[in-house]
Every structure is written in C-alpha cells, then in structure tokens.
Amino acid sequence: MTALDGKVALVTGASSGLGAATAKVFAERGATVFGIARDTDRLAEVFAEVPGGRYASVDIGSAAACRQAVADCVAAFGRLDVLANVAGFHQMRRTITLTDAEWEHDLAVNLNGPFFLCRAALPHLLETGGNIVNVASVAGVEGEVYSAGYCAAKHGLVGLTRALAVEFTKEKVRINAVCPGGMLTPQVTDFAAPDDADWELIMRIAAPRGFMDPVDVAKTIAFLASADAAAIHGAVYRVDNGKGAD
C-alpha cells in the first residue's frame, strides 16, 4: 500500500510546473488523477506519465466550468477524495499601470477558481471523508514587489482555507494550504518584469538556498492529501527553501 492508494484526486494546473509535478507524484503514490488546465496538448504530454489518469481542458475562472469539471471527475471514477488547487498565475506589473482586466485575471485564476472548485467538490469530499489542499504562495503571507493582484488573491486563498477549515471543523473533511516559495517553473523562468524594475527588490523573491524543484513541493501536497496527515486541518504550510528564515 502507498499513501494515496485507492484515492481519486482532482488536480488543477496539471499541464505544467507544480500542477504537473503534483499529478505525477499523486499517481506514483497510488492515486487516480483527473487533471485540468487550459492547454490540452500539454495535458496530454503530462498524462502520458500518469497511469490511469484522465484530463480535461477547463477555464477555472468560470464557475460553471468548475462545476462541470468536478462532475466529470466523479462520473469518470465514481468518487472524489482530494481536490488539489494548484493552478496559479503570476504577472509582474506596477500597480499604477495594472489594468482592470489584468487585476481580474489575477483574481479569477488565483482565488475565484479555487473557491468555485471547493464549493463544487465539498459535497463529494464530505461523502468520502476527503480533503482539500490549496496552493497559495509565500506571497499569500507576505508582500511581493510588482504583484498587487497576485498577493491580494493569494492572501485571499489563505483566508479562504482558514475560513473553510473553521466551517467544517466538525465534518469528516480536512482543508489545508501550502505556501511555496520560488520554484523552477515556467512562471519563474519565463517571467517579465516592468521595464524600470528595481532588481534588488525582485531578487528578494528567491530564497538564500535558491529556487526549488517543484517535485519537492508536490511531495508536501501529497503528504497533506494522505492519511499520514489525518490530524492536520486548517494548517498553512510554508515550503520556501529557507526564505522565511532570512
């Protein structure tokens, strides 16, 4: 037996980065994975390495699409045990030039989508005694330069996690959050800073030990999703390679 044997997990952002790493780690630990993201081609590449998994193109900014994704997962596998809200979007903009559309997109991906999915998944998770792992960020517990929308949304996701944990304290469901620091994902390797950015401020994003391999964060998510974390509810875990210690 492995830690997630027999569990069905819905993983968002599963086409790349931490979401893809989480889907693969979950599968390695025995879970059946339903992965969602917008890019079907990249999902197909990832799920070639996720035995027994299925995937679908979903815009998590849409409440209706989130409801359908949960319904499709349950229809495919008969149950839902874990919701891993991993999808995230980080754009660096000066606040005074941040457009309404950019602000709304930050909130749609980083906060609205996780809320829509939690709301849709909870009735099924209450039946199975399952759990939710929300992936926020160290930007959800501290400030980060040129990231007003991202920080606001990730702080909101931490707050959502804590609110749900209190609301469902007496139920057989667990709800926790992970706050990663900088990882070697496309969001870091392909990011674009404002033209006149202060790079001293930007480099504060990195921990003294450097950027992490997303697999190491995925293992923490898998731990929280497993029965090994049965006593953990309402926790917010920093996984930041020592950033919080500097």
What labels describe this entry?
Rossmann fold, alpha/beta, 246 residues
Level-1 CATH class name: Alpha Beta
**Biggest sheet, spatial arrangement of strands:** 3-2-1-4-5-6-7
Largest sheet: 7 strands, parallel
Rounded Rg:
17 Å
What portion of residues is helical?
40-55%
Care to count the β-strands? 7
Query: Which architecture name does CATH use?
Result: 3-Layer(aba) Sandwich
Give a quick rundown of the structure:
It holds the Pfam family adh_short_C2. Belongs to the short-chain dehydrogenases/reductases (SDR) family. Helices cover 42% and strands 14% of the residues.
What's the SSE blueprint?
Elements: E1 8-12, H1 17-28, E2 32-37, H2 40-47, E3 54-57, H3 63-77, E4 82-85, H4 100-128, E5 131-135, H5 148-167, E6 174-180, H6 186-189, H7 199-202, H8 214-225, E7 236-239
Helix pairs in contact: 1-8, 3-4, 4-5
Organism: Mycolicibacterium cosmeticum
Keywords: Oxidoreductase
Family: Belongs to the short-chain dehydrogenases/reductases (SDR) family.
